[in-house]
Amino acid sequence: MNITKVVQLIQRGQTALGIEFGSTQIKAVLISPDFQPLASGSFSWENKLQDGIWTYSQADILTGLRQSYAQLAAMVSSKFHVKIERIGAIGVSAMMHGYLAFDTNGKLLVPFRTWRNTITEDAAEELTKLFNFNIPLRWSIAHLYHAILQNEHHVKDIAYITTLAGYVHWKLSGEKNIGVGDASGMFPIDSDGQFDQTCLRKFSSLEKVKQYPWQIEDILPQVLKAGEVAGYLTEKGAALLDPTGTLEAGSVMAPPEGDAGTGMISTNSVRRRTGNISVGTSEFSMVVLDKPLQKVHRDIDIVTTPTGLPVAMVHINNCSSDINAWSQVFREFAGRLGKNISADELFSTLFLDTTKSDPDAGGIVNYSYFSGEPVTKTQEGRPLLIRTPNSKFTLANFMLAQLYSAFAPLKIGMDILTNEEKVTTDVMIAQGGLFKTPVVAQQILSNVLNMPISVMTNASAGGPWGMAVLAQYVSSGAQEKLKDYLDEKVFVDSEIMTLSPEQKGVAGAGKYIERYRSALSLENSASILKDEER
User: Fold this and answer.
1) Of 14, 487, 477, which is closest to residue 228 (Cα–Cα)?
2) What is the per-residue DSSP string for 432-465?
3) Over 86-133, what HEC string results?
4) How confident is the model over 296-351, as pLDDT tens digits?
5) CATH of domain 97-162+187-220
6) Torsions phi, psi of 316, nearest 5?
7) How many CA atoms within 13 Å lie on the side-chain side of 235?
8) Residues near 374 by Cβ (< 8 Å), separated by ≥ 6?
9) DSSP string, 176-191
């Protein structure tokens, strides 16, 4: 598409904007009507452990929103010599789950409690039994009930609870609604794509809940499906997003979604028997089910696609943080030698070195736990590297152990689906920054899970682009079903590469996982080393 055509699209407001609040970056992507990225912007941030709670500040949420958009707008001005005055459609996505509670004046009652917190075990266990439906520790309802069980003072003043995506959407549009995929990480969803009425009644009947002046159904957001209009950008919302006053109000808003939903969109995995794996600070696999699971599993979440189809989700709290931390050490060392190495070159060099490794990582075992990990019943995060005197401690084996450790908890969870529930997929597509270096992480993941893994050419595009596609879908009028829209318009010319498991790699990964399981007691006992806030 030539620059003149792009300028006309921007001036006419025929674009769509997707903004996603990830664990380490807030990213904004502007796309054309044919789904091509035109510009992007980002803002780096980190969660903080404050008073035993993993959180992001409200100020950082809003600052990151503005700065990521400002960077995108500056790129548009630089590339196309035009300012963004109007945008056709906008969508917001974010890390799912967590707890944001507000009073009647819209005041945040307690600091944002993110998905990373594992303090809600008491509440999650009780609600799982009550609903006969798995309630993970990170779900919004688990956080709410935990606050109730702890007699937290703020609970009586709650007027609204939502997710991070729901909060930002509310600030931009004034509407208290949420996409069904994100909603399915707050509270169980029924077959109609709404909060399950039976579970709502059961929750309301709890003695400890009855004492409060609110009703659960009144403090939850309205649930919408992909393609439905979720409001419009208000004057206040436009000023929040673009304080320069250049951006006009009126953009149609898509239902805010979670990062799981945008992951399904960006990998075209919304049909039954399709699946995807998203890796980053956390990781998760999603399989769109063609039949219900036989029983409730504490390590398998039932969430939904952005249209409300049931999805089996294996969510892992820890994935790439330890790899990032070690790579920074290597980068510092290179700097001491006077070598300025880019992040992409560093990761590529380290990952490619794994081709020289022993299949089982030479006896090295690594735990990448920066926070608790429910799937292995680990309460607190303690990154840990273990080796014996006879382990082959080489750079290649060290890096393979790092990648194995990133995928090991996912393997433990996926075994429940494949071995116990006999769930199968027609395709499993992976995405995330680890796959920017071709082949390496993709092949290792295939070996660990012992299944073919596909990667699309947009493997690192991810959530913000997927959210922009959902916004464009709303803007188009959503005349066709989302699955057909993706097949026939969005991914019609997409390229995909599939790698199958290697026999030697599968055997080596299997040995690693055995050691990983057997040494978990060491990881769990490492919590004796008390963490200090820094």
Assistant:
1) 477
2) EGGGSSTTHHHHHHHHHHTS-EEEETTTTTHHHH
3) CCCEEEEEECCCCEEEECCCCCECCCCECCCCCCCHHHHHHHHHHHCC
4) 999 899 999 999 999 999 989 899 999 999 999 999 999 999 999 999 999 999 99
5) 3.30.420.40
6) -120, 125
7) 0
8) 118, 136, 137, 298, 299, 317
9) -EEEHHHHTTTS-B-T
* Extents of the domains making up the chain: 97-162+187-220
Cα-based torsion angle of the residue sequence 212, 216, 221, 223 in order, rounded to the nearest 10 degrees: 180
Q: Which amino acid is at 278?
A: S
pLDDT in tens, 390-411: 999 999 999 999 999 999 999 9
Q: Which residue has the tokens 């070159």?
A: 345
CB 141 within 8 A of CB 187: yes
Q: How far, CA to CA in Å, does 364 sit from each of 49, 395, 402? A: 29, 11, 9
> Regarding beta strands 283-288 and 53-55, do their DSSP bridges make them parallel or antiparallel, or are they unpaired?
unpaired
Label residues 399-438 b or e (16+ Cβ within 10 Å = b). bbbbbbbbbbbbbbbbebbbeebebebebbbbbbbbbbbe
Nearest-10 crossing angle of helices 343-352, 321-336: 110
Both structure tokens of 195: 């909060």
Tokens of 165: 């995506």
Q: CA 15 from chain center: how many Å?
A: 24
Q: What three-state secondary structure class fits 531?
A: coil
Does the reported pTM lie above 0.85? yes
- Burial (CB count <10 Å: 0-12, 13-18, 19+), residue 210: exposed
Q: Which of 323, 382, 318, 325 is nearest to 354 (CA)?
A: 323
Tokens coding 289: 């089910």
For every residue of 135-148, DSSP letters joined together read: --TTSHHHHHHHHH
CA angle in degrees (0–180, nearest 5) for 484-26-497? 45
Residue 6: in which H helix or E strand, if any?
helix 3-12
Reduce the DSSP state of residue 121 to 3 states and report it. Answer: helix
What are 427's strand-pairing partners?
274
Bridge partners (DSSP) listed for residue 510: none
Can you list the positions of beta strands (E) in 7-147? 16-21, 25-31, 37-44, 48-50, 53-55, 89-94, 100-102
d(CA 321, CA 319): 6
Give the C-alpha separation, 70 to 43, whole Å. Answer: 10
Decide: 96 and 283 in contact? Cβ < 8 Å. no
Residue pLDDT, tens place only, 482-509:
999 999 999 988 889 999 999 999 999 9
Closest CA to 330 of 237, 244, 399: 399
